[in-house]
Write a structure and sequence with these properties.
single chain, alpha/beta, 2-enoyl-CoA Hydratase, Chain A, domain 1, 2 domains, five-stranded antiparallel sheet, disordered N terminus, disordered C terminus
Length: 453
């Protein structure tokens, strides 16, 4: 790992030298594609175009929050100036958006084709990671662009190590349901795997079908994560109760028995079933016609798990279908148009993208560890660490799944601590100078408070 970091550092230096050597030629071709960057002694970075520079100050036109402003800094406040170093975001795609683009040539909507149009949206991988709201929304929008009459949400979800915001995803799927109703679009859930919190999201939809090897369960893993997250027994009980209550509400939203959903999350729940006509009715005891989950023993460890056959018997699934052809035939459509679109490509690029970003974060951390070995002044080392943490923040904005691995508040706190260290260094330097204040060009000094925005 260490040798790999050194190799990356050497390559970075070579690339920086190459960039410096080629900047003039590149700008001669397009003098609007590259911007200047100013790094202050406290680690903050500003990007724009330097419009005036003297021995005493630097003036830059900065674009912030969509507005152009002019900032001026004393030389004593500036750690580093890089000219023509940063690509202009207005010249291409904005940095905050992942590079996921649709392939050319795919026909999403054909006004001359009157057949029933079907589009499949994969909800694949761990919720909050591969199955993130941002990529699901991107694929869903393409389904709407295709004017799909039926959208198949194919659930193939495992439980992640961490937990995404359950209410955020509940609200997200509720928005999708409302959009579908407004367009008179039928939404069908097709379950391959709906494990962990995914089982509750699947139950939000009235029309659920299974694949032959489909399964729904794994809710006990969430229950255990919540137990381990809170040491206080009373707090733990309240949090589990609140979480289960949200899941019960999602099941009721889809028209399913909330008790069945709870039994798939809480191992201690006992469940049996009786039939009223063809309708299954569930009860929290073992007195029903069919015992689903007796939970023998004082400390049951397993919650209810459902196979495709059991989901059909218990009234959750409307049927088991191996292929989309089988599913559509079961829905009553012999003729239909299946729009493949870019769903699979989008999902793959998203999954690869956030994983590469997580790997990049690890490299950034390794680079930060190396900074302490450089023969740099302490203020420059601290400022460089802050700049690296700003890179982490940009990565997290671009790839939100990283928040399940990196605490954004911890990054903010780390930056704040380093900035305070820099302020102390700068204030001490100012007090130690003859007459106070001032400072030679290129040296840190002066009050940073004057430059705070």
């Amino acid at each position: 790992m260490f040798s790999e970091v050194i190799r990356r550092s050497i390559l970075t230096g070579v690339c920086a030298l190459a960039l410096l050597c080629t900047t003039v030629a590149a700008m001669a071709q397009d003098d609007t594609s590259m911007l200047d960057q100013v790094t202050l002694a406290d680690g903050r970075q500003f990007t724009g175009r330097i419009i005036e520079e003297t021995a005493d100050f630097i003036k830059m036109e900065v674009v912030r929050l969509g507005m152009r402003t002019t900032q001026t800094w004393k030389r004593s406040e500036v750690l580093e100036v890089l000219r023509d170093a940063i690509p202009d975001p207005d010249a291409g795609k904005k940095e905050a958006e992942p590079e996921i683009k649709a392939a050319a040539g795919k026909v999403l909507y054909d006004p001359n084709d009157k057949r029933h149009t079907v589009y499949k949206v994969p909800v694949r991988g761990p919720i909050g990671l591969d199955a993130h709201t941002r990529i699901i929304r991107m694929i869903w929008n393409e389904a709407m662009e295709a004017r799909a009459n039926t959208i198949i949400l194919e659930f193939d979800c495992e439980q992640p190590l961490g937990m995404a915001d359950i209410e955020e995803y509940r609200d997200f799927f509720e928005v999708l349901k409302r959009e579908a109703r407004s367009k008179e679009t039928k939404v069908v859930v097709w379950v391959k795997k709906a494990r962990g919190v995914a089982l509750a999201y699947a139950l939000m939809f009235p029309d659920i079908y299974f694949q032959p090897d489909g399964e729904m369960g794994g809710g006990a893993d969430i229950n255990e994560q919540l137990r381990q997250s809170f040491s206080d027994e009373a707090v733990r009980a309240k949090m589990i109760s609140a979480w289960v209550g949200i899941c019960r509400g999602m099941a009721e939203e889809g028209g399913y028995d909330a008790l069945l959903c709870e039994a798939m999350i809480r191992p201690e729940v006992v469940l049996s079933m009786r039939y009223e006509g063809d309708k299954p009715v569930f009860q929290a005891d073992t007195n029903g016609e069919v015992v689903l989950d007796a939970n023998n023993g004082p400390e049951p460890k397993n919650a209810l798990e459902l196979s495709a056959k059991q989901a059909n018997e218990y009234g959750i699934s409307g049927g088991t279908h191996r292929t989309i052809d089988d599913l559509m035939f079961g829905l009553g459509y012999r003729e239909y148009r299946y729009v493949e679109g870019n769903a699979e490509d989008f999902a793959t690029k998203w999954s690869d993208g956030w994983k590469a970003a997580l790997n990049e974060y690890r490299y950034i951390r390794a680079d930060m560890d190396l900074i302490g070995t450089y023969n740099w002044p302490i203020d420059r080392q601290i400022a460089s660490r802050i700049a690296k943490l700003r890179e982490v923040q940009r990565l997290m904005k671009k790839w939100p799944p990283l928040e399940l691995f990196i605490d954004p508040l911890a990054i903010w706190a780390e930056i704040d601590t380093l900035q305070k260290e820099l302020r102390n260094i700068n204030n001490n330097e100012q007090r130690n100078r003859p007459g106070g204040g001032g400072g030679a060009p290129g040296k840190t000094g002066g009050s940073l408070e004057d430059s705070d925005i």
